[in-house]
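Ticket opened by: R.M.
Priority: normal
Category: complex prediction / small molecule

The reporter submitted a protein together with guanosine-5'-monophosphate and asked that the result be attached to this ticket for the collaborator who will pick it up next week. Submitted input follows.
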Amino acid sequence: MQEGLLIVLSGPAGSGKGTVSQLLLRSPEFAFSVSATTRAPRPGEVDGVNYHFISVADFEERIRRGELLEYTNYCGNYYGTLRSEAEAILAGGRNLLLEIEVEGAANIRRLRPDAVLIMLLPPSFSAQEKRLRGRGTETEEKIRARLARSRAELDCLHLYDYMVLNRDNGAEDCAEDVRAIVRAERCAVRRHPGAAAAFFEN
Ligand code: 5GP
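Result attached by the on-call engineer:
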């Protein structure tokens, strides 16, 4: 069985990553690795579904035990990918979707050069600001911190393999772009190093 692809989906706050991920996860081909975080749950978020919501002490203990594939501190909270969760999904042949920020993405690139890095972008900075305020899930201070971070995130665009533009209400188009990227990546010659030899053996 071919191992699943490791797909990193990043994007500035308000880019629509969550919605696009939900659309992708409707297909059994994709699986989501539930990250651990020390930030407080937003209304409606469920422990073990959106995140594993854990304490700072617990997070730091997991870092020490090597349980995190990658982790970062984003706007004052820890976020990290649990190694056990990610590896089980890949071994099962499903495509692993990591919805993580740019520092985590750069770490994944080092650990797993075969990962596919996709940046989801709002149409513009002003559109991003409008969306973030419209969402109404963060305080003004947190909105400002997230907006300020988007410059650093865009500075890392060159690390990514693909960019997908989320036009207004374009989540389904974005999901379609991601599915197309994954389909093409599965056919990439570099992912099939023994193919020519196998052709004559079978
Ligand atoms: P939020 O608080 O909006 O859920 O997430 C804040 C940022 O942290 C987002 O950019 C999200 O993609 C990122 N993030 C979520 N989980 C992880 C993780 O496990 N590792 C890293 N590096 N970033 C994460």
